[in-house]
Amino acid sequence: MKQSDLLIFNSKGIYCPKAQVYIDPWRPVNKAIITHGHSDHARYGHKKYLTHHSNVPIIRHRLGDINAQGISWNEPFQVNGVRFSLHPAGHIIGSSQVKVEYKGEVWVFTGDYKTEDDGVCTPYELVKCNTMITECTFGLPAFKWKPQEIVFEEINAWWKSNKEEGKTSVLFGYTLGKAQRILKHLDPSIGKIYTHGAVENMTEVLRPQLQLPETHLITKDTSSKEIQGSMVIAPPSAHGTPWMRKMVPFETGTCSGWMAFRGARSRRATDKGFVLSDHCDWQGLLQSIKESEATRVICTHGYTDIFSKYLREIGYDSSTENTDYEGEKEDTATTETIQSA
Q1: Which stretches does the entry tag as region Disordered (predicted)?
Q2: Which residues have CB under 8 Å from 70's CB, separation 6+?
């Protein structure tokens, strides 16, 4: 990157020198524009946080008493002559793309994003630009998502089958975003829905913004008998812990884009894998870039080298930059095992 660029990457994050503002910085700064509430993008220690209104209660819940200002979609604000605006990213509730404009030059930082309307968060909005900074968490051709309607038909059928066999269904998904997406599309006519404390706490923060089915928090007083046949939503970290004993007999399922690969389910020791991601698949990434009309693309977090090389082959000015963002983690997967899958 050039020092004259509108946005540059430095040791603290993505920086706009003309405005002296950072976007999703990973080290403490004075003024930070935050795209969404996941911990790799919204970190503690900044003096001032600027984010979408619906993300304010999320980051306050996670980070405590912070100086956070909410901004509406497409509401421009200027800092030292640089014009900024937030646009829906479709990743999770309150997730934003950041548009940066100065003297006719337009950059967009997508943050994490997906183009499928999940019925929970504000759908992704196409933003045209000269330079696009894109994630590529799933930047391989092997990633191709089914429509979510099909995935949730599979999930509800799995739950119904388990209930008929007298088993509890335990479904793992991230507490922020994935858990609420799952809840939104479960069929409560099948039975009761129970939650792990981490899922319940975050869901309660978000209920004022969403219409979700009733859930029941699992406590030390909750008996195995009353849970039997129900659906339990829990974070991946709960898998294999003593907390799971209360669910016996149970079947486990995991919702993740990584379930698209053979071996991912066994690595996570889960009975069933559902391919459900809050990120774009390969085609979603390419379509978004094409429709943005950007001629320059900077790739961050994910299969950056592979994806950027492909973009160069089809005519883009493309490069990669290192960040502290993690995307959707698959701790045990390697590039070698994934490419050979």
Answers
A1: 320-341
A2: 51, 52, 53, 54, 55, 56
pLDDT of residue 258 exceeding 50: yes
Phi and psi torsions of 190, nearest 5°: -75, -40
Lowest mean pLDDT among 23-27, 186-190, 304-308, 324-328: 324-328
Per-residue pLDDT, 336: 29
pTM of the model: 0.93
- Measured CA distances, 215 to 179, 186, 218, 258 (Å): 12, 11, 10, 27
Model pLDDT, residue 267: 64
Provide the CATH topology of domain 8-141+279-339: Metallo-beta-lactamase; Chain A (3.60.15)
Q: Are 270 and 251 in contact (CB under 8 A)?
A: no
Pairing between β-strand 8-9 and β-strand 14-16 as defined by DSSP bridges: antiparallel
**Domain residue ranges in the chain:** 8-141+279-339, 148-274
Q: Which residue did the predictor score with more confidence, 263 or 224?
A: 224
User: What is residue 287's three-state secondary structure?
Assistant: helix
Determine the topology of domain 148-274 in CATH: Rossmann fold (3.40.50)
34: left (phi over 0), alpha (psi -120 to 50) or beta: beta
